[in-house]
Amino acid sequence: MNNPADNLGMRQVLSIRNYRFLWTGQVISNFGDSLTNLGLLILVNQLTA
Questions:
Q1: 15/7: higher pLDDT
Q2: CA distance 47 to 49
Q3: Distance CA 43, CA 35 (A)
Q4: Which of 7, 8, 40, 42 fits as disulfide partner to 12, beta carbons 3.0 to 4.6 Å?
Q5: Rounded to whole angstroms, how far apart are CA atoms 7 and 27?
């Protein structure tokens, strides 16, 4: 049982419009999470000096 989706390369996967939207949204979300963690680290550092 060979699934045709198993043989997709990165270019073919990113050519799928809805997947590209999902992937882009996840990248933006991860970037926002990283900024939040950095801000919390700076805040804790300033409060505890």
A1: 15
A2: 6
A3: 12
A4: 8
A5: 24
